[in-house]
Amino acid sequence: MTWLRSITRTSDRHCDAIRILPLTAQCREWGDTPIIPISDFVIVDGYHMDHLRLRALTLIETLAETGSLHQAARRLNTSQPALSVMLQEIERALGGQLFERSRRGLVPTERGAYMIRQARLMLADLRRVQSEFASGNEGRALLRIGALPLVMLEIVPRALALLRQSQLRIRAEFREGAASELLAALADGMLDLVIGRMLPEFSANDDLVPSFLFTESFCVVGGAHHRLANRRKISWQELEAADWIEAPTNTALHDFFAEAFLRRGLRPPQPIYRSASFYSCIAILGASECLMMVPREVGGHFARQSRVCILPVKVNEASAPFSIIKRRSRAATQAMRAFEDSVRRAVRRGGPMK
To answer: What is the pTM for the complete model shown?
Structure first.
């Protein structure tokens, strides 16, 4: 099913109205209004309708999060019948059903899924503007940045130091997490950009645009006083027999660790310790004879603090490129461009990455 998208300016209400309608082979005009195909959408020029109010966008977002009119009513501090009437009005204005009832609650239709994403994008931009004009923040542009943990160790701090040299007044909110979580937040408008990997499952989203930053490489580390610390050469057979700490499961290391041994005809060791945090893993390394495979940026960071030693082992495996990922539909602000430039300069000055 393809959808019609109609946007019209209602000057008396100072608001853009959105109309979404099913497109069939016979449907080539809407009343006396011509339809102009554009990719998967068409513009219906001149069709007037009541605009989508802020409370309607909030309701769509809340229903998507709760899957229940009852829970949405509690969250929005109103009655369920009132929300039911409002939802019917929204669906009538948009020309079709947004949610279907099921045993699991309210499930978005195809049209509903599209409107949920649009509502989240519009509300996220509005909340960002509200935050920028909050008390004490006038004149400071707000940046909402998602980053994988390893870039928060040195790359982002170096970038912020470079950014402070400019005359821009910027506030930044950082969110760490797995790449899938950060990309989903970016797609929903909750973040302005992400520093991380572009995952295959998000490649179909034309609104997400990655820009190459660097290719991550790996190294093998042990505690600062590990028995292999002073060795000049270590075989992979010795590594196979060693005790290992498993990398966090939400990182690329979870897959590349096994691949490194399999490519050399060896059986991947079964880790004896597991942790979801790099910091916990580094602490365990210091109190044991275990080894761990980590991104070279992480290994270098903790080696400079004398908390680990990097073993003389060549790990040829490389992960997917790291990128700065932005939304095509979100116009880059001066603050975003300045931060991206600072990140790129920080990477060039960092040393271990290519």
So the answer is: 0.63
